[in-house]
Amino acid sequence: MTLRAQIRGVGHYLPDRVVENAEFENWVDTSDEWIRSRSGIERRHFAAEGQTTSDLATRAARAALDDAGLLPGDVDALIVATSTADLTFPSAATMVQGALGMESGYAFDVQAVCAGFVFALANANAMIVSGQAKTVLVIGAETFSRLMDWSDRGTSVLFGDGAGAVVLQAGEGDGTNADRGILATDLNSDGRYKDLLYVDGGVSTNSTGHLRMEGKEVFRHAVEKLAATAHTALGKIGLTGEDVDWIVPHQANLRIIKSTAQKMGVPMDRVVVTVQDHGNTSAASIPLALSVGCQRGQIKTHDLVVIEAIGGGLAWGSVVLRW
Ligand code: UT7
């Protein structure tokens, strides 16, 4: 018997306010045509005033628990992947824990920016296969609209708010690639690239700050590193792109998504794409896409799914799992 971390439920939440590309034409020198053709983004959701990351995360968590047929009291551990927690402390995760009415278990945040959900899922897997926890709620939630410099057309048009969640639970497998659950992971970071994507403020520098990005350079790293990490994770269990049913990539840019799929030898009709409707929601983008992919009837039980992401740090990685 092999212990596997298996997906039991998935859910998401998007704030009500939808902002179409054309709205940005009122604020900065841009156009719907430029945003669409350079990024694939058509619209994004923005959180309402007073609506926080833990609010979005709690809604997504409830949806995932309902989908799994579980109650908050069944959860041993709760992880929120976020770079936009409500407060400096406590963690967004403990705030979600409180909002859900969980009276036991433990909760903490993971901060790996846009790769946060991949890092959180890989660590939840390690917690489950080591026997530390049986049921783990893994959430990606962000309010990146709060980090925007609205005068910077190179970044403000790209990001959105939202949350997605999965319930992972220990299950039995026979140790083969046919097992349901997480089969392989690959995590990386390289702090030498800090200046390519960062927020120019924080508690220790006594400021709030705005997101700054060298878009072209991040693009170049993404195209190179995302296919490589997916290839590495698949290679750990003797698989290739040909074995993949669905790539569920970080939704930053349609051109990056297409190039990665092409390098992996996976056709675009096997890629879950939501970037047109959500924009880049950082750590929320993959769980949002997993949830939407299930709702659309794309991802089905026993499908082999690869998730991959890159973000500030740089930090990047991938997880291979059987749904
Ligand atoms: O989630 C974390 C990971 N993040 C990413 O993966 C993002 C990676 N980067 C990208 O997605 C792309 O680099 C962008 C979408 C950000 C930009 O696309 P690009 O093809 O790399 O454009 P660029 O930055 O080279 O800019 C091309 C031109 C520039 O004008 P000049 O210097 O050629 O005259 C920019 O000033 O487009 C201009 N530009 C804009 N024009 C209209 C930049 N932003 C805008 C805009 N509207 N919003």
Q: Which small-molecule ligands are present, each listed once? A: oxa(dethia)-CoA
- Please trace the helix and strand order, writing H or E for each element: EEHHEHEHEHEHEEEEHEHHHEE
Give the amount of beta strand, in percent. Answer: 25-35%
List low-confidence stretches: none
How many distinct domains? 2
Helical/strand content category:
alpha/beta
Distance between the amino and carboxyl termini: 19 Å
CATH class label of the largest domain: Alpha Beta
CATH H-level homologous superfamily name of the largest domain: Thiolase/Chalcone synthase
What is the molecular shape?
A: globular
Layout of secondary structure:
Elements: E1 2-13, E2 17-20, H1 21-24, H2 32-39, E3 43-46, H3 53-68, E4 77-81, H4 92-100, E5 106-110, H5 116-129, E6 135-143, H6 153-156, E7 161-173, E8 181-189, E9 197-199, E10 211-213, H7 215-236, E11 246-249, H8 254-264, H9 275-278, H10 285-295, E12 304-311, E13 315-322
Parallel strand pairs: 4-5, 4-6, 11-12
Antiparallel strand pairs: 1-7, 2-3, 6-7, 8-13, 9-10, 12-13
Helix pairs in contact: 3-4, 7-8
The chain binds oxa(dethia)-CoA (UT7).
Explain how this protein is built.
The chain is α/β, with parallel strands linked by helices. The chain folds into 2 domains: 2-173, 3-Layer(aba) Sandwich (Peroxisomal Thiolase, Chain A, domain 1); 181-322, Thiolase/Chalcone synthase (Peroxisomal Thiolase, Chain A, domain 1, 3-Layer(aba) Sandwich). The chain contains 10 helices and 13 strands. The chain has helices at residues 21-24, 32-39, 53-68, 92-100, 116-129, 153-156, 215-236, 254-264, 275-278, 285-295, and strands at 2-13, 17-20, 43-46, 77-81, 106-110, 135-143, 161-173, 181-189, 197-199, 211-213, 246-249, 304-311, 315-322. The strands form 4 sheets. Strands 1-7-6-4-5 form a 5-stranded mixed β-sheet, with helices on both faces. Strands 8-13-12-11 form a 4-stranded mixed β-sheet, with helices on both faces. The protein has a two-stranded antiparallel sheet with strand order 2-3. Helix 3 (53-68) crosses helix 4 (92-100) and helix 7 packs parallel to helix 8. The protein starts with a strand and ends with a strand. The relative contact order is 0.20. The model has no long low-confidence stretch (mean pLDDT 97). The protein binds oxa(dethia)-CoA. Oxa(dethia)-CoA is lined by residues 30, 34-35, 38-39, 114, 153-154, 157, 215-216, 218-219, 222, 252-253, 256, 280, 310-311. Residues 30, 34-35, 38-39, 114, 153-154, 157, 215-216, 218-219, 222, 252-253, 256, 280, 310-311 line the site of oxa(dethia)-CoA (UT7).
